[in-house]
Fold Aromatic amino acid decarboxylase.
Amino acid sequence: MDSKEFRRRGTEMVEYICNYLETLEERRVTPSVEPGYLRHLLPGEAPENPEPWEKIMQDVESKIMPGVTHWQHPRFHAYFPSGNSFPSILGDMLSDGIGCIGFSWAASPACTELETIVLDWLGKAIGLPDQFLALKPGSKGGGVIQTSASECVLVTMLAARAQAIKVLKQQHPFVEEGHLLSKLMAYCSKEAHSCVEKAAMISFVKLRILEPDEKCSLRADTLRKAMEEDEQQGLIPFFVSTTLGTTGSCAFDDLAEIGEALQRFPSVWLHVDAAYAGNSFICPELKYLLKGIEYADSFNTNPNKWLLTNFDCSTLWVRDRIRLTSALVVDPLYLKHGYSDSAIDYRHWGVPLSRRFRSLKLWFVLRSYGITGLQNYIRHHIDLAKRFERLVLKDSRFEVCNEVKLGLVCFRLKGTDRINEKLLSCINASGKIHMVPASVNERYVIRFCATAQNATVEDIDYAWDVITDFAAEILEKDQADEVTEIVDRRKTHTLAQKRSFFVRMVSDPKIYNPAINKAQTPLRISGELTSPSTDGTVVTVQSPKTPGSASWISWPLAFLFANSEDGPKNDMPLRFRHLDTMVRLSASRRNSATGGGSSPEGENGLVLAKSPKRSPIMIRRRGTSPSSGGAGNGSDK
């Protein structure tokens, strides 16, 4: 591709990007693909020969876009904003065009100096103390652009570790550094980002994770108690990571209180992670959230979250840059230059040597929008979050689970964690909007954040409509499931009762001994249903709802007893062990006076007695003719 074709393709690409962002609403927020989908669409090896640019762009739309999660979508409400704007895109475009690797001042003076200046601009706008600004007279601090907040936490922990080992080595010169390292202890809140734990793993130091208060804020008393306990155990506190705007609920550790408490531990490094919330401190009305920053040794925030700057752009400031760089300096001859003593070399400020010209895009954004424009953007997102909070509070089925100070609202359906998990799963599966969960005070909550640059009130209302529609459907189904569960429990309980009776029926001698049953004639139950047959025997069906009113015997003995030569001696209700009814056999007065008539179905006619809960029962009886008067027997079918 030569410059002529690049002009044409570049114009096409700008047009493609504009169309993509303008028509995002027409796309599904999250892709509906399975892991490995792309492997089946692309060849297993790179092409041997060049391919047409048109074919490449066709594959972008047909193969790549179906697997993209659209973070700039107005229905995307997960995580935090992913900064994006046209000035930032152009800044990255220019940086890529220049293609410099600014690991030192000599490698690209403009790359280094613009980063220093832009970081001072932003630090002043945020409200950082002068000690954090590189160009303030007498300052030993300064700012640097890192890849992410994770890298900011890692390099500050490494610097704190190096400082602690240096002090301990002076106190114990004959103790091995490995032993001293095993004594170091870092601290953070349970609400801190997981990158703190990862940094401790990389640094080979211990990390104590502390419980926050009911507002998810780390308090000084908790930290002080933990540090004193560890000192008594022979451990050495060296690093504390606090958070302003936690990932889970945008909670704020009590920085002023913690900073004051740490004055008792002068060698402990205090870091402040404000990856999301730190951007909002450019608004004067939100600077109160930065209270206590004068105690900090380092501070980071991510313009690539909430300052319309594309990833990667995480900014870190330190009070004393020498303490930072002394832990990371590696200075081979081929990297030295004549201005090393008077200029900043950012290769000493982080893990990687190679560095992109990232300050260009931040510079473009700050100049294109101005501080006022960025303030308005942040305030607009906060207003949208407040609107969503009001919608949640108006619905008695929901509750808000965090203190909404910025652009994040944590909410949930009143009820179990299971039903909230189900709600979020159904919403995300629909592809209409996208959110993620968090745990706040050991409860499952759903996070809602306004993320799109041009998000509107209509986007918030649409999201709430989707949430409430799914909530109504799930609550209705959940109530139906509860009814089904109750019915199933009752069925199980009834079955257990039947099984219990069966055990008693086969084990109680009273049940099988007709003599005992004859001697204990039960009381007649009212409300029984009788049906006379042609042979004079009356079949009575009676509900078993009145316990203690009948003798229970198995049906073979019942028939033998009822059809004995002397005939039934009393009106005894009989229990068929496989039925929910009792049958009473008694002789009618007509039968005793005139004798039994023949059955309409012949000598072995059938009399049908229906159980109210079971299938019909067929009982075969032998009719008694005037001439024979023989004894009858029966069996069921």
